Amino acid sequence: MLFLVLLILPLPTLALPQAEPVPGGIAIIPLAVSSSDGVPQVYYNGARALVVRDEGHWKTVIGIPLSVEPGEQSIQLRVNGKTLSQRFTVRDKQYETQHLTLKDKRKVEPTPEDLVRIEKETVEINAALAEWSDSAEVDTAFAPPAEGPLSSPFGLRRYFNDQPRKPHSGLDLAADMGAPVQAPAAGRVIGTGDYFFNGNTVFIDHGQGLITMYCHLSRIAVKPGRSLARGDLIGAVGMSGRATGPHLHWGVSLNRALVDPALFLPPETAHVRPDAAAIEE
């Protein structure tokens, strides 16, 4: 007689980003719905948010804009025809200040013609960062997109030629000119362009409102519509756009909020080396 022994294994735990519920950070919120309910939809600040099933429970991974004031925030859940509200708390975080000097004054005070171009490009960039695609599985455990120390951390309050500008909305990697830039996880190229500030840029959709962007490239190696696996080449490090030295500006948008890319990296790799800082917007 043949006996079969069934081993009951625990459900796998997803490699989720690091939770840091601060302006520019990420909140991971267990949802107050039954595991037997259908897939819930979650909205935050009017934008749909990433939902995952982890250890048999529904969770949402929320990107918090840098502009959000610390304090109580709320999300809206839609499941089985019902709409519910759930609250979470955003902690305070003080980002450092950085003063930079640019010799090209047009990159600090654009001409009227430049402003027309910038306005048009801003619409295009924001549309790419607002992309949504349904995906049952989203890989949020990223690999660094280029080799090199991390520099110019996310959230720096920046002054260009003593004039205040927007905080640093991404993370710089101080890689060499021409170094390969690779997809940090599976996704699809949804756009490319050459922009006034960002230079040669690639946008990748990883699913459910998780978009990454790669700026200041010396060349772009992909076209819109291409599906990517982790590690696929997307371009090369450069200094196009507003930059004074070769480096990669890496941005991550989650539910239309630009958040700290370092939260998607293994903690042991997400260390900033200040002496490797590069200059860019």
Please render the helix and strand layout as text.
Blueprint: E1 26-30, E2 41-44, E3 47-54, E4 57-63, E5 71-79, E6 82-90, E7 97-100, H1 112-129, E8 150-151, E9 157-160, E10 163-164, E11 171-173, E12 180-182, E13 187-195, E14 199-207, E15 210-217, E16 219-220, E17 227-228, E18 233-236, E19 248-254, E20 257-259
Parallel strand pairs: 7-9
Antiparallel strand pairs: 1-4, 2-3, 2-5, 3-4, 5-6, 8-11, 9-10, 11-19, 12-18, 13-14, 13-17, 14-15, 15-19, 16-18, 19-20
Q: Helix count, per DSSP?
A: 1
User: Kindly state the mean pLDDT as a whole number?
Assistant: 86
Q: Specify the structural class.
A: mainly beta
| Count of strand segments | 20
Proportion of residues in extended strands? 35-45%
Order of helices and strands: EEEEEEEHEEEEEEEEEEEEE
Dominant shape: globular
Task: Report the uncertain regions.
Answer: 1-13, 272-281
Going by CATH, the architecture of the largest domain would be Distorted Sandwich
Feature tags:
281 residues; mainly beta; Immunoglobulin-like; Glucose Permease (Domain IIA); 2 domains; eight-stranded antiparallel sheet; six-stranded antiparallel sheet; 1 helix; 6% helix; globular; disordered N terminus; disordered C terminus
Walkthrough of the structure:
This protein has about 280 residues and is mainly beta. The protein has two domains: about 25-90, Peptidoglycan hydrolase domains (Immunoglobulin-like), CATH 2.60.40; about 95-275, Glucose Permease (Domain IIA) (Distorted Sandwich), CATH 2.70.70.10. About 5% of the residues lie in helices and about 35% in strands. The chain has one helix and 20 strands. Strands 8, 11, 13, 14, 15, 17, 19 and 20 form an eight-stranded antiparallel β-sheet that branches. Strands 1-4-3-2-5-6 form a six-stranded antiparallel β-sheet, with no helix packed on it. The chain has a three-stranded mixed β-sheet with strand order 7-9-10, with no helix packed on it. The longest helix is centred in the middle third of the chain and has 18 residues, at about 110-130. The chain is globular.
